[in-house]
């Protein structure tokens, strides 16, 4: 009863949290500091509590001989391992052994046993494990494609990504001796440095190196540098020439489309399908199919939509107009035209063009203001602002009006344009 009590479990979890905080609070520089001394004594207390917990659980469940015993649970084995490491570390004076104490943080995984009592969490964990077991085929296909592109990359770029630290030299034979460079571009501070024939950080000189280079491309981390280096590549053992092979960029584009986009989407889609299939397993004994169950759920959860219809005759006419399909199409066309006008603005635009854009901006703002006023009349403010989209439209209109007002108050700051 003690080890299964909620208070006992929460208390142990609290001590796990304190233990983790104490590990993070240790002074990594002054190992003999007063703070580390206090935390070391606290570590003895925590380890004693965790050891007592394991003894109580072994007494309650048994060690390992029968089904349901302590050591037949993976989380309990993790607890035993972490506490054992802490006990062993007390007898070792090496500071490196303190690193293993961080494993104690893994004890917070024990509350995951509550997954068996939470239907939703249990479903998620089951889906994750099923996806991991069956994802091997996708990994194999991705690896084969990676290997194929790596072989192509070796044929295209092997030995072609080398460059001399002195950009005036194009071959390894010329890249000898010293050359003069200038610190921070200042001609008054010349520096003599030796020339060196250097390879790219990521290269295609062999298949393994090519697979690593392509992996960095698939992560989109710093890959433009490799792309530009490949575009500038000349021939083997010769330095780069600017934009010598622009067409070689097609290789990287195809690789990104197939690996980074296509295969990644397959992976995500496979996980989603796995979740759906596991969800259907719960209804395998149900007489209703999926569509029938959805119909029943919809019938149970459906609620009538509330729609405001004014009783005042004049207000009703305005309400009828703003809810009509023609009015919606008209406002859509106005929004599209306004977007086109915004996209036409550019640097160095003439004064005439800028004046025309300002006039159109005020015209569209006026039309959208009229729309907002009509809807306020039709729905009244209470029902108008209940719709989040109406509130969003109102904020945009008010912001546009404020922008026009500021522009008119300070016209000199907004009339910079090209005389042409």
How would you describe this protein?
The chain has 420 residues and is mainly alpha-helical. The chain has three domains: 116 residues, Up-down Bundle (Four Helix Bundle (Hemerythrin (Met), subunit A)); 99 residues, Orthogonal Bundle (Helix Hairpins), CATH 1.10.287.70; 97 residues, Four Helix Bundle (Hemerythrin (Met), subunit A), CATH 1.20.120. The protein is 60% helix and 3% strand. It contains 13 helices and four strands. The strands form two sheets. It has a two-stranded antiparallel ribbon with strand order 1-4. A hairpin with a 7-residue loop joins β2 and β3. α10 crosses α12. The longest helix is centred in the C-terminal third of the chain and has 34 residues. The chain is extended, with a radius of gyration of 35 Å. The N and C termini lie far apart (88 Å).
């Amino acid at each position: 009863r003690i080890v299964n009590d909620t208070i006992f479990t929460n208390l142990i979890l609290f001590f796990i949290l304190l233990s983790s905080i104490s590990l993070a609070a240790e002074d990594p520089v002054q190992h003999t500091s007063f703070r580390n001394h206090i935390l070391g004594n606290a570590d003895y207390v925590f380890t004693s509590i965790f050891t007592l917990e394991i003894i109580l659980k072994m007494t309650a469940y048994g060690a390992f001989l029968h089904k349901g015993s302590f050591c037949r649970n993976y989380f309990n084995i993790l607890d035993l391992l972490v506490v054992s490491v802490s006990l062993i570390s007390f007898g070792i004076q090496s500071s490196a052994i303190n690193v293993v104490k961080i494993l104690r943080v893994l004890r917070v995984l024990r509350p995951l046993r509550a997954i068996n009592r939470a239907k939703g969490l249990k479903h998620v964990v089951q889906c994750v494990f099923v996806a991991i077991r069956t994802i091997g085929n996708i990994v194999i296909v991705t690896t084969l494609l990676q290997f194929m592109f790596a072989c192509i990359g070796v044929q295209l770029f092997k030995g072609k990504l080398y460059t001399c630290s002195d950009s005036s030299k194009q071959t390894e034979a010329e890249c000898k001796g010293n050359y003069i460079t200038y610190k921070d571009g200042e001609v008054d501070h010349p520096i003599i440095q030796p020339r060196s024939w250097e390879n790219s950080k990521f290269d295609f000189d062999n298949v393994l190196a090519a697979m690593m280079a392509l992996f960095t491309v698939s992560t989109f981390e710093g890959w433009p540098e490799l792309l530009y280096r490949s575009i500038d590549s000349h021939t083997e053992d010769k330095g780069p020439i600017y934009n010598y092979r622009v067409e070689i960029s097609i290789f990287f584009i195809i690789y990104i489309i197939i690996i980074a986009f296509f295969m990644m989407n397959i992976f995500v889609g496979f996980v989603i399908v796995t979740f759906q299939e596991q969800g259907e397993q719960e209804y395998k004994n149900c007489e209703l199919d999926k569509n029938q169950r959805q119909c029943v759920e919809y019938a149970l959860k459906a609620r009538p939509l509330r729609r405001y219809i004014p009783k005042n005759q004049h207000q009703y006419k305005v309400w009828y107009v703003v809810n009509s399909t023609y009015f919606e199409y008209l406002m859509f066309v106005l929004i599209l035209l306004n977007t086109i006008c915004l996209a036409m603005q550019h640097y160095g635009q003439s004064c005439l063009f800028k004046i025309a854009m300002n006039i159109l901006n005020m015209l569209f703002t006026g039309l959208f203001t009229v729309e907002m006023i009509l809807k306020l009349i039709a729905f009244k403010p209470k029902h108008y602002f209940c719709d989040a989209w109406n509130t969003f439209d109102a904020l945009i209109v008010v912001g546009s009006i404020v922008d026009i007002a500021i522009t008119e108050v300070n016209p000199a700051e907004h009339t910079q344009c090209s005389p042409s």
